[in-house]
Amino acid sequence: MVKWLDDAVFYEIYPQSFKDTNGDGIGDFRGILEKLDYIEGLGCNAVWMNPCFESPFGDAGYDISDYYKAAPRYGTNDELKQLIDAAHDRGMHILLDLVPGHTSTEHEWFRASMRAEKNEYTDRYVWTDSIWEEPEGQGSLRGISDRDGSCLVSFFSHQPALNYGYYRPEKPWQQAMDAPGPRATVEELKRIMRFWLGIGCDGFRVDMAHSLVKGDEDGKGTVRLWQKIREFLEEEFPEAVMVSEWGEPDKSLAGGFHMDFLLHFGPSHYNDLFRCDEPYFSGRGKGDVSKFVRIYQENHKKTAGKGLICIPSGNHDMDRLARTVCKDELKVAFAFLLSMPGAPFIYYGDEIGMRYVEGLTSVEGGYNRTGSRSPMQWDASVNAGFSLAGEEKLYIPLDPAPDRPTVKGQMEDPASLYHEVKELIAFRKEHPALRSRGGIEFIYAEKNAYPFAYVRSAEDEKILVILNPSGQPASFACEYSLAEPLRSFGGKITQRDGSVTVPGGFYGFYRV
Ligand code: NOJ
Ligand code: CA
């Protein structure tokens, strides 16, 4: 297992919205380079950057037209290398975003594969053998070329599905996973990985990692495919780290991923925490953490020793955390996010409580996701310090609220969320029990109840974490006798007759 993951805390950067240095209104590599000090200062030692490759940007870069070339709007391959090198100089790591499931319709492979005459790319995508037959799935591209067939799409209609074969081919056009077409796709995927790992990136976040083999309901074919990729990495890049957009850690980690995300889709009940009508971390105190915990425990058991389950604060596809969890509630939410096993992922701006910007027109295939992708708010200068471009040129409009949070404002305020997050990260790093691989035992996680308590443990250390996001005091039966907290927020607990009562809006860490 790669050592640096032990105390990794990731920061997700959406490059177009982070920092623009040439006044075109779009963030760029140089902007990220300038802000590495900031990320390091916060305590994050690893970065996941969303796709930054050549693309017509119909899905914000998840529609790639050249896997081997940085998108000119962000900079050159050399500048990307400089950014990676600069991160390494600080002891930080960078994961790029690998999009193996589909390309843009503008990719030259797709153009070649649309041709009626057979060629090298005829089988690069999933095509039926007649325009009148559509493949089952997300829909298909039909009647767009002379090729007599329909091409499966993977997500949006302009994202044709690359061909990794069918788990159990049934129709003549469905190819086996080991047929020449799917094998060539896998070889190309390895070439892409080799290219960027060779340039120095530390690994990949993998887009829709669960979706590659078709007709594969239980994921068995896709797991096998990733195991092969892992073998290749073990041989050529044993230090390369892989995190999957999958949401089912028992499958993805079996496939050889080091980490998997719990996400707003899938069986994890992640949404119960922050994103539903009554989130557990809302001060209203009407949430339920029990289903999340039950599934987490099952997964944790199944994946023990195999890899990490990662709980993100949010990402570019979800509503901003601050849309449903506000003010001091966010501090309790971060106490949870930064004290669970696995590597935490902080979505840029969540550390200052950046808000979801309501009512925006979709940008680059963002639709409702656009409001979570607005420019980073650095300070009170022009365009919140994001860009010197005219306001109308900004990639996405800024949060117009006069009281929008900024990095500078929060750095100057010792009681801010920024400082809380920074201190929680430092606290996590100081305590082996709280790091990625420490154990977890849930002490109190009852249905529709508060507080929420668990013990994290490492060889020489055990720490009880108590969280009460609700606005009301709450009690639970506790066998430990608790001394002064190592760290807490929101008041003091009382302990009597084996019961601990904690104030509303509280978190505390206790040595036990
Ligand atoms: C998941 C990505 O996170 C999302 O932004 C994208 O639109 C789809 N996959 C398609 O690549
Ligand atoms: Ca720019």
Describe this structure in words.
It is globular and about 80 Å long. It has helices at 29-34, 36-42, 77-89, 108-113, 180-199, 220-236, 249-254, 271-274, 290-303, 329-337, 407-411, 417-430; strands at 10-13, 46-49, 53-54, 66-70, 93-98, 140-141, 151-152, 203-206, 241-244, 259-261, 308-310, 345-347, 439-444, 452-458, 461-468, 474-477, 487-489, 494-496, 499-502, 506-511. It is built from 12 helices and 20 strands. Helix content is 24%, strand content 16%. Helix 10 (329-337) packs parallel to helix 12. Strand 9 (241-244), helix 7 and strand 10 (259-261) form a beta-alpha-beta unit. The strands form 5 sheets. An 8-stranded parallel sheet has the order 11-10-9-8-5-2-1-12. Strands 13-14-15-20-17 form a 5-stranded antiparallel sheet, covered by helices on one side. Strands 16-19-18 form a 3-stranded antiparallel sheet, with no helix packed on it. It has 512 residues and is α/β, with parallel strands linked by helices. The site of calcium ion (CA) has 5 residues, from loops.
Short description:
The chain is of the alpha/beta class. It contains 12 helices and 20 strands. The chain has helices at 29-34, 36-42, 77-89, 108-113, 180-199, 220-236, 249-254, 271-274, 290-303, 329-337, 407-411, 417-430; strands at residues 10-13, 46-49, 53-54, 66-70, 93-98, 140-141, 151-152, 203-206, 241-244, 259-261, 308-310, 345-347, 439-444, 452-458, 461-468, 474-477, 487-489, 494-496, 499-502, 506-511.
Question: Which descriptors would you attach to this protein?
Answer:
512 residues, alpha/beta, eight-stranded parallel β-sheet, five-stranded antiparallel β-sheet, 12 helices, globular, binds 1-deoxynojirimycin, binds calcium ion
